[in-house]
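Fold description:
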Amino acid sequence: MPKSGPSLVDVIMPAHNAAITIEASIRSALAYPRCRRVLVVDDASSDQTAALVESLAARADGRIELIRLSANSGPARARNIGLSYVEADLVAFLDADDLYEHEALTATVGALDGMPDLAVVRMALKPIGLDRAYLARPDFEAGVDAGDLHGAEQCRHAPSGADRCGRASRRTSFSGGVAGRTSR
């Protein structure tokens, strides 16, 4: 059966003590019409992160799911656990202190839908409100246009709160199972 329209995306959002930023991050993901769900993996936050996400989820018609971890394990493990909950064809990653630019997921989904052999798209970085000290670091490249998919491989992470990169991948790229789960 032919697919109607662009693929759906589940967005995985690791979060630890992100009560100040998480609502804006979730809203930036949900602004994309083909975002099926935002899977927030709360990495044992001690602030109001989980309560805030629960409140947002109650008004989001199933488009926000909270997954709570009992012990802090770091963002990599939180992302991996989030992968075991993905049901959409595509998966994207967004940290709880980052935002998607308007239409960012449209460009990545378009690239993945238009090139079936492509497995991963990495969006470029656009720092906003970043301390000049970070821009001077030799491992930080700020000259990449956020809308330029050809320059996406040049994206580098800056310290927390500065990363405007996102990643989108085909779910089948992670088909080996994650965190002890082989299927859902």
